[in-house]
Amino acid sequence: MSKQPKENRLSDLTLKEKTGLFQAMAEISEAGILILDEENRVEFANPRVSRIIGYGQDELIERDFTGFLDEKSKEVLSSLKKESESGVVKFSHETEISTPSAHPVVTEMCFASHALKSSNRRKYFVYLWDISFRKRLSEELRESEKKYIDLFQQVDQGICITSKQGNVLDCNQALLDMLGYESKEDLLEMDVTRDLYAESDDRKKFQDLIERDGHVKNFEVEFKDKNGESVPILMTAHGRKMTVVM
Fold first, then answer.
1. Are the C-beta atoms of residues 187 and 168 closer than 8 Å to each other?
2. 190 burial via Cβ count (<10 Å: 0-12, 13-18, 19+)
């Protein structure tokens, strides 16, 4: 039987073939890839870089990459160049890249260097990930959370969030005032059925309504305050984690 020829390994490829392979990988990469010389001039930029920065690949060649960075990022880049002499440097520093549209793009970078044996000079590899959308989404979520917390605490109706098992997960100041407690922690340690409901059967009726309809409106019940006195309550609630408004 004749032997099948072995497939070429990377080590068997010619320099031209390896270069072509690298360029093909760079073309389809979701990360922006740059190669810089020791003066930070761009020697190579893949298509993703062009989409991130907003300049064509040909326009980027020979440009000083630091021209796209603010002063803080320039200092970070200089420091990374020194650190990368021993290998790859990974970091989570957020870098704003200036663009022709005047709207900077928020990116994360990975940095590495390679010493050329022929000249003992170095080439620097920069990988860019556009995190503008993730950053904007994170800020919007923080803002939404802040608005929720402000609303939760400022309304004059008592609100609490309980689990199906009867644990208080959160409550607002109005509920504490209604029941005579000073600290939220006092309620968080309670069993709702045992410690809040004047009649434990009311908790079962309330849960049955939630399970059947997904919500409850103006459910009449009596709670116990800190001193054990009955407090008449009208409850409106919805959800698997029961958000209760009183």
1. yes
2. middle
- Which stretch of DSSP H or E encloses residue 201? helix 200-213
Q: Which domains does the chain have, with CATH numbers?
A: 13-134 (3.30.450.20), 153-245 (3.30.450.20)
pLDDT of amino acid 245: 64
Closest CA to 159 of 187, 200, 201: 187
Model confidence pLDDT, tens digit, residues 126-171: 999 999 888 888 888 888 888 888 888 888 889 888 888 888 888 9
Complete edge-to-edge strand list for the sheet that includes strand 159-162: 168-171, 159-162, 242-245, 230-238, 215-224
> What distance in Å separates the CA atoms of residue 239 and residue 184, rounded to the nearest whole number?
22
CB 95 within 8 A of CB 105: no
How many residues are recorded in the chain? 246
d(CA 191, CA 185): 12
Judged by DSSP in three states, 22 sits in: helix
* Predicted TM-score of the model (pTM): 0.56
**62 Cβ contact partners less than 8 Å away, ≥ 6 residues apart:** 41, 42
Cα first-last separation, the chain:
85
Q: pLDDT by residue (tens digit) across 55-76? A: 999 999 999 999 999 898 899 8
